[in-house]
Amino acid sequence: LKDIRKGAEVLVRDSGGKSLRFTVTDKETVSKKAFPTERVYGATKGSTLRLVTCDGAFDAQGHPVDNLIVYAELS
């Protein structure tokens, strides 16, 4: 996900086999301590997709300290 760019397409197949195409609108790396809960999980206009994974450095216990978040909208 770190290499995905704004405008990229993400194809998702639902449980019925239908393919849904989303277009990346934004991407950010944020500290887990400052996770943008409302932006990621809050209400949106239309169908959206949020991809969240670990990113960045690791703390003393070996856990990642950041999240990479990709935002996309149904095309």
Describe this structure as you would to a colleague.
The chain has 75 residues and is mainly β. The chain has one domain (9-74). The chain contains one helix and four strands. Strand 3 (48-58) and strand 4 (64-74) form a beta hairpin. The longest helix is centred in the middle third of the chain and has 5 residues, at 37-41. It starts with 8 loop residues before the first strand and ends with a strand. The model has no long low-confidence stretch (mean pLDDT 96).
Write the layout of secondary structure elements.
Layout: E1 9-13, E2 19-31, H1 37-41, E3 48-58, E4 64-74
Antiparallel strand pairs: 1-2, 2-4, 3-4
The whole-number mean of residue pLDDT values reads 96
- The side-by-side strand order for the widest beta sheet comes to 1-2-4-3
Assign the structural class, choosing from mainly alpha, mainly beta, alpha/beta, alpha+beta, or little secondary structure. mainly beta
**What is the subunit organization of this protein?**
single chain
Principal-axes geometry comes out as elongated
Helix content: under 10%
Number of helices: 1
